[in-house]
Design a protein that fits this description.
The chain is an alpha/beta fold and 401 residues long. The chain has 4 domains: 160 residues, 3-Layer(aba) Sandwich (Molybdenum Cofactor Biosythetic Enzyme, Chain A); 46 residues, Molybdopterin biosynthesis moea protein, domain 2, CATH 3.90.105.10; 85 residues, Beta Complex (Molybdopterin biosynthesis moeA protein, domain 3); 74 residues, Beta-clip (Beta Barrel). The chain contains 7 helices and 26 strands.
Length: 401
């Protein structure tokens, strides 16, 4: 099978991927979720003309010129309005949010009033008609579309939905990703290693990539290099309701790389296998019914780079989210050799030099070296057959930190 170009592989992987069905969740669980249906106002806000300040409600003509002496005939706290009407040279003590009493046309703020005692006040600053009043429907009216589908719910959006009298909202279901690591040599962190064994690390980085775009990660553990062991975890992934199955390792062409055989044996239709990129050549993609299957390389750096380039865009699409790689122009901080037929993603430290980005690649790019990836904040993207490049030449950098 010929190597698939990166752009073509991504296009084929995303083909037919669409946001998952919506589900209703309480507002307290809706933070950072994506709306599946519009939020329509179930009420008008404010539902009445309300005071915007603490002060005194009165007729505008009575305070058009000052000083003006008024009689206080009642109090209107928030949540309990004054039941009477305001007449000539009368006022009602009012608090923020309280309904405007009948007959009142303006609010004189308390700082502009002197208490004369005996229920009398003196207004020392004029107040025009409509001053410090929130008119009915100022924020929204019943039936208004307040939030559109696709909106990522944040603090302001959730407060707005609550104010519109919604206790729940319909959000796109978060994709569930089942993660299966493979390899006889692997043990989980915290284990006592035996001869020829190593710690399994890929699942943690991949799970973090999954969660960074709002999806859910289900770690199914490590399968031994036996078809029946891998098949058992695939069956478990299907039973869990996974939308995506991610396998780690075992997707190359060696005698112990069994993922392809197991998944096709379970009914997976292969989409592509092996990509024209470095690191990450042995990436595999297929569909097992409605479940998307991605076989990531076993090398830690390759699995994380492929997660950035392929897994995150797929999960964002399924979750109804917008996702764009952060690719910026830069200059090389070190020379690079000519490239071969594969698109290269070169771990680099990207720094700011008086407003211009400088990308300095690490000298060693072995795909097993996680420390270098942790120290990097970007990947220089080099096209297939790119010629040798000198210090200072233009380049493109995929920023991830």
């Amino acid at each position: 099978m010929a190597l698939v170009p990166v752009a073509e592989a991504l296009e084929r992987l995303l083909e037919g991927a669409a946001p998952l069905a919506g589900e209703s969740v309480p507002l307290f669980e809706a933070m950072d979720r994506v709306l599946a249906e519009p939020v329509v106002a179930l009420r008008t806000q404010p539902p009445f003309n309300a005071s915007a300040m603490d002060g005194y409600a009165c007729r505008a003509e009575d305070v058009a010129t000052v000083p003006s002496r008024l009689s206080v005939i009642g109090v209107a706290p928030a949540g309990r309005g004054f039941s009477g009407a305001v007449g000539r040279l009368q006022a009602v003590r009012i608090f923020t949010g309280a309904p405007l009493p009948e007959g009142a046309e303006t609010i004189v703020i308390q700082e502009n009033v002197r208490d004369l005692g005996g229920g009398e006040i003196e207004v020392v600053e004029p107040a025009a008609k409509g001053r410090n009043i929130r008119r009915v429907g100022l924020d929204f009216s019943k039936g208004d579309v307040l939030l559109a589908p696709g909106r990522l719910l944040d603090a302001a959006a959730l407060s707005l939905a609550a104010s519109a009298n919604h206790a729940r909202v319909s959000v796109v279901r978060r994709p569930l990703v089942a993660i299966i690591a493979t390899g006889d040599e692997l043990l989980p962190p915290g284990s006592e290693l035996g001869p020829d064994q190593i710690i399994s690390s890929n699942a943690y980085g991949v799970a973090a990539a999954v969660q960074s775009v709002g999806a859910r990660a289900l770690d199914l553990g490590i399968a031994a290099d036996r078809k029946e062991a891998i098949a058992a975890l695939v069956t478990k992934a299907v039973a869990s309701g996974a939308d995506v199955i991610v396998t780690l390792g075992g997707a190359s062409v060696g005698d112990h790389d069994l993922i392809h055989d197991v998944l096709t044996g379970e009914g997976m239709k292969l989409g592509f296998w092996k990509i024209a990129m470095r690191p990450g050549k042995p990436l595999m993609f297929g569909r097992l019914g409605h479940i998307m299957c991605i076989g990531l390389p076993g090398n830690p750096v390759a699995s994380l780079v492929c997660s950035q380039l392929f897994l995150k865009p797929l999960l964002a699409r399924l979750g109804g989210r917008d996702f764009r790689q952060d690719i910026r122009p830069a200059r090389l901080g070190a020379a690079l050799q000519a490239n071969d037929l594969r698109q290269d993603y070169v771990r680099s430290v990207v720094s700011d030099d008086d407003g211009a980005l400088v990308a300095t690649p690490f000298g060693i790019q072995d795909s097993s070296m996680l420390r270098m990836l942790a120290d990097a904040n970007g990947l220089i993207v080099r096209e297939p057959f790119a010629p040798a490049a000198a210090v200072g030449e233009a380049c493109r950098v995929l920023m991830f930190r």
